[in-house]
Structure formats: structure tokens, C-alpha cells
Design brief:
The chain is mostly beta strands. It is built from one helix and 47 strands. Helix content is 1%, strand content 46%.
Amino acid sequence: MSCHAPILSVVLSCSLVFSLGTSVIAAPPSVNYLTPAGGQVGQKVEVSVDKTLGTQPVSVWTSQPGLKIEIPEKPAKGKEKQFTVEITAEAKPGLYWLRFHNAEGASEIRPFLVGTLPEVTGAEPNEDLEHAQKIEQTAVTVNGVLAKAGDVDIYQVKLKQGQTLIASQVANEQLGSPMDGVLQLLNHRGTVLKQMDDTLWFDPRIVFTAPEEGTYYIRTFAFPADPNSTIRFAGAASYIYRLTLTTGPFVDHSLPLAWHPSTAQPVTLDGWNLSDKLKTLMPAVSDLSQDALLSAPELGNNLTIPLSTTPVVLETKETQSEAGQQLTVPATVTGKVAAAQEIDVYRFTAKKGEKLTFKVDSHKLGYPLDPFVKLFDAKGKLLKEIDDPRRNYFDAALDYTIPADGEYRLQVTDRFEHGGFRYVYLLSILPTEADFSLQAANEQYTLTAGDKPLEIDVTIDRQSPRFSDDIEVSIAGLPEGVTCEPVVSKVKDKGGKSVKLKLEAKKDVTFQGPLVIQGTSVKDKSQQHTATAVIKGISPKRNTARPKPDLELPYLWLTIKKK
């Protein structure tokens, strides 16, 4: 049985109430990862969990509709960890989150990817050219695993002269695999023609145009994402990956990089092997979503782009002139540092006392530009240099009060003077607005009915410029018999940095479902945010020069059990 929650405000509609059993061996689900970790639209997939599905009956919550999940109540011997996922024809490609739950509790939330291409399973042995797994299709997604230390997987493809192959691996970034993957492309002699490690964070992608017809090989191996003292290739059962191999259309980025629905205009796709039909695409936006989806059955991948609060314009050739491209504030612009040492120039007028927020995003969108920004006044005086606003954050951001009426110029370049096809960025110049966010200490909680209250610590981040209003923190959609008094985070009380919610349930209440913790500005009810929590056991922080922050999601969970 499965249920989904496309809109946070109504996720509680898929809560299930259970009559708790008394068996001493009853256990909640506990899931480390799924294999395979995805499937194709319109297909049915047999999936296994690492660890346990728990005591039957077991149900599944999903973050959006499109998946029909069946878990047998009486599985055959040896198949106790298996279930079936039917991906409907209406399912949208992309990332889904799954949480398994029964009367005893719930599992950790885990990812499942839906794609458009046919899927195959990596077959061992395939560690050398002689035993390389043959890929007969021109477009396919391989579900593989580097199952042990020293493991290497190799796939064989045939290319015609001039054909462009995209080999794109998804592992650490979306699946949370603890691997730093490497891809190599070899010719029939075993010579490495191309190697790539970090394209999207630790996930590699190779784009290769065949100089001659023949057989080519794609080899993958990995190092631990969190480095240790070992010097050999790493591997474990958790080193799962999805490797797309295609000579068909594949998208890298869109122009613009963000979309404003009021424009009702398609965006331009930039990538490889794109037909005229796929040069532009209309984004799809779901209710209350903060992103727009770019997908098509012919595409070998999909792309999500953020929604903008203002229409997004494209850079023009004027950015290469001394005067620069004229902007009207508020402004959101998509640009590209197309060549090494390129500097893009923009100009705008502003009035004394205006508080503006300047942002240049690239790194967090998955692109390699390390933005370096300079702000000048009309006389050419350098007012501010904008680089990394804080440690391990590589996009540029600045809150600034305009000192005088007049024209200002903004320069955007790469911090290390790099440039190229993927060095795209999203520049925004907007009125500064105070905001806040909420973080819960855990992603799931258990309350014993009729027992002592459950205390939930919630941290409030009053972002710069400091959000100075009081914030009411509450839980939405609690079932009958369950109470939690709202708590107000007051600025004057130690800065209003945290609150403690106390949740109580009457003696006979049982419940399983999403937990929605909301913070609402006392003065402006439209300013409301849902609490997120760090997802444990996936995408950990890395002890590297560029660590990635822990994954945080708004999909919290509550279990209420009898004594």
C-alpha cells in the first residue's frame, strides 16, 4: 500500500491509523538504501531494501504521486526484503522520497529516481575489458553497485564516427551513496581517452564524440566521499549508482536558469544531441512547488530549475562592453562566463538609502562557476568585492545599502578566471527582505499515548538582515486526541533562537503520518515556513576542502503508540 503527499499542507491526509499488536518480535521498518534505486516511467520494478521492511503489514509514504507500491504481507522465503514499485505512465521523472511505516514505527526517508530511458542491471563479472558488459541500446540507464573494495565496473558500447555519447553517473548527489565516483572512457586498446570525476558535486559525467567508428568502454570506480587512509578503490553494498549511457538528447542547463510563471514562455535547452523539437521546452510547475520541471520522453535526463520572484532576462552582448548591460531593479538575469578571464558587466540606477540584496548563484545549482563580483559607483570607485559570504559557501551574496543616488556597475566573473560552456549563473538584484527558517532536531519522532509529553526542539534561524518579528511555532493537522500548544519565539527572549514544543496524546490514540511544524510571523501571517530536518544516513558532511552540507528536507514523521 502506498500514499503520497504532493503538498505539504495536506500531507497528513495520507496518515494511517493502526491497531498495535502485542507481539514481542514486532519491529518497525529500517532502510539503509534501495536496490535498484530507480526505474523507468510506465514500468514495474522489483526493489529490495538493505536491512528490514519490519513487521507486516507495512505501508509506504511517497513525496509525490506516480508510484504504486505493493508489499506482500506473506512474502516468499528469501524475499522478505522485496517489494514492487509500479511507476505509472503519468509519473513525473525525477526524485521521489519514500518512507516505510507499520504499527511499530517508520523507516528513514530514502530516495527513488524515476527516469525516461530503458533500464538494465549491472552484471558481474565486468571488471576488465574482456568481461565488459555489452550495452546494446543506444540509450539506457544502468543500475549498478561497486560492491566491495577494489571493485571496478566496465560497460561496452559501439559508436559511429561523429556520434556523441553522454555517460552520466548519479550516486552521491541524489542517492546519498558514500562514494566519490570516477568515469573513464577507453578505446578498444584500453587507452584512457577521457576521465572525469566531479561534474555535479562528486558525481561525474563524460561527453565524448567518437573520432572513428568502433567499440568503446566506460569504466567506473570510486573513492570514499569522506576520505580515509586507504589508497585503493573503495566499494561496499551501499555504493549504488545509476549510470546513463546515451547517444540521444541530454540537457545540461536551461536559458534562463530560473523561470517566472507569469511569462508563460518556454525556456531554451542547452545540452547535447538536442533535436529542433527539444531546443525549447515549457516548464511544468506543481502546486506550491518552489521549482519547475523540464522533462520530455525523448530526453535522457530531466532538469529542475528554481522559480523566480521576477521575470528573468538573458545577458546580451552588451555585457562585454565597457558600459555594460542596462538592468532595471528589481532584476534577475541568467548569464554565462563563456571563456577564461571573461568579465560580464551590468549597470543599474538606484537611490540613496535603498537596501538591495545581490546574489550570484551557480555552484548550488550544480555548475562550476565560483562567482566573484565587484560593485562600482558611477565614477568607477570600487564599493564592494563579493566572494564567498561564509565558509564552504561558494556563491556570492551581499546585503547593501545604496550610499547615493546614481548609476552603479556590477562585474561578474569566475574567482579563478575560468570559463566555458557550463559556467552559467543566476544574478539577482532585489530589495532586501528579512526572513527566517526552522529546523527540527530529528526527522522522526515517537510519542507514547497517555504517557509523558513528547518534547520537540525547534531552532529558528533569523536570517540577515535579522528577522525582528515574533514567530508562532505550531504543528498543523494533528489528529483528534492529540494536542500541542503553539509556542511564540520572541525576539527579546535570548534572541528568539529556539523553542520547545510539547506534544501529548490521549490514552487510546494511535497514529502514523507526516509531522508538519510551521512557523508564522505574528505580524504578517503570509510569512510562513515549514521546519526541515537533517536526513541521517545519507549525504553526510565531507571532510574535504568543499564539504557539502547535510541534506535537509521538510518531510518529518510522527508515530504515536500505545503503552
